[in-house]
């Protein structure tokens, strides 16, 4: 069997399993099995596939067919032009979160706090983009803290990043000019409708609060003010239908300067709150 024939067969198998974009996934997984860059797969396509590569590829396709995320199979995910190590212990970085990154980078900041840091993709990206900034990432999961620390090292920002195990603000003592968060925002009843890759293979506590999906915003809105310097900002990612209700939570907590920012698809994605 050639590499091209193996990809065709794998694509058909993934398509039958309901995997979105099966051809792309087959290509990425073959490249991983063959230990070549994905861009070079076309170069090996006419060649017979080596038995050990075929065996690795078969195992990867079998796992992908039961909806294990590609990032978990290859151990990494691209986000904002950088590579991040990921696992089932942390939420995969996703393109919509880049809206929060763009909003954060739109204004200067020197010291930031990332609440629920997970893989550390937000904290690490912002520190990498602003080479004089420092920051703290907190997560209640010890495994997530280890993953975030590893990604800080991988991306060269570890000397400027502090990672703490903390239930939101409980272990936080500093003040910051920027606080960011991508909290769990799915209501418990929405979990049955999410893709199997999320529902079955990513940490549930990073997806839902097991309630209405709003409890984290209440904690952030009520606790952030004492950890911000005057003029500081809070940026939180939201589910695209939740803009008005999250803004109302911040208003009730005393915030008066609020902006609702859209993602590239024009859907509400980030709430920005500011201290004056």
Characterize the structure shown.
By secondary structure, the chain is an alpha/beta fold. The protein is 38% helix and 19% strand. The strands form 2 sheets. Strands 5-4-3-6-7-9-8 form a 7-stranded mixed sheet, with helices on both faces. Strands 1-2 form a two-stranded antiparallel ribbon. α1 (3-16) packs parallel to α4 (51-65) and α2 packs antiparallel against α4. The longest helix is centred in the first third of the chain and has 15 residues, at 51-65. The mean pLDDT is 95.
Q: What percentage of amino acids are in beta strands?
A: 15-25%
Q: How many domains in all?
A: 2
The main pleated sheet reads as: 7 strands, mixed
- What is the third-level CATH name, the topology of the largest domain? Rossmann fold
**How many DSSP helices?**
11
Number of strands: 9
Cα(first) to Cα(last) distance is 66 Å
Shape: elongated
CATH classification class of the largest domain: Alpha Beta
Estimated radius of gyration: 20 Å
Largest beta sheet: strand ordering: 5-4-3-6-7-9-8
């Amino acid at each position: 069997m050639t590499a091209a024939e193996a990809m065709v067969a794998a694509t058909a198998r993934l398509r039958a399993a309901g995997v979105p974009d099966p051809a792309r996934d087959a290509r990425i997984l073959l490249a991983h099995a063959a230990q070549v860059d994905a861009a070079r797969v076309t170069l090996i396509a006419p060649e017979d596939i080596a038995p050990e590569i075929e065996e690795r590829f078969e195992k990867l396709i079998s796992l992908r067919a039961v909806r294990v995320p590609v990032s978990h199979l290859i151990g990494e995910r691209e986000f904002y032009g950088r590579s991040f190590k990921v696992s089932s212990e942390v939420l995969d970085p996703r393109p919509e979160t880049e809206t929060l990154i763009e909003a954060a980078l739109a204004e200067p900041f020197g010291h930031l706090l990332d609440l629920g840091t997970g893989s550390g993709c937000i904290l690490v990206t912002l520190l990498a983009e602003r080479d004089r900034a420092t920051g703290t990432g907190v997560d209640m999961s010890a495994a997530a803290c280890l993953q975030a620390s590893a990604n800080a090292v991988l991306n060269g920002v570890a000397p400027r990043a502090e990672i703490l195990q903390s239930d939101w603000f409980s272990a936080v003592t500093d003040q910051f000019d920027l606080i960011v968060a991508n909290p769990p925002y799915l209501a418990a009843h929405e979990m049955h409708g999410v893709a199997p890759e999320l529902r079955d293979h990513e940490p549930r506590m990073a997806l839902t609060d097991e309630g209405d999906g709003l409890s984290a915003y209440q904690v952030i809105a009520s606790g952030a003010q004492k950890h911000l310097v005057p003029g500081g900002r809070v940026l939180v990612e939201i589910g695209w239908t939740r803009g008005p209700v999250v803004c109302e939570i911040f208003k009730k907590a005393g915030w008066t300067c609020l902006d609702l920012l859209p993602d590239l698809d024009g859907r509400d994605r980030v709430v920005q709150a500011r201290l004056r």
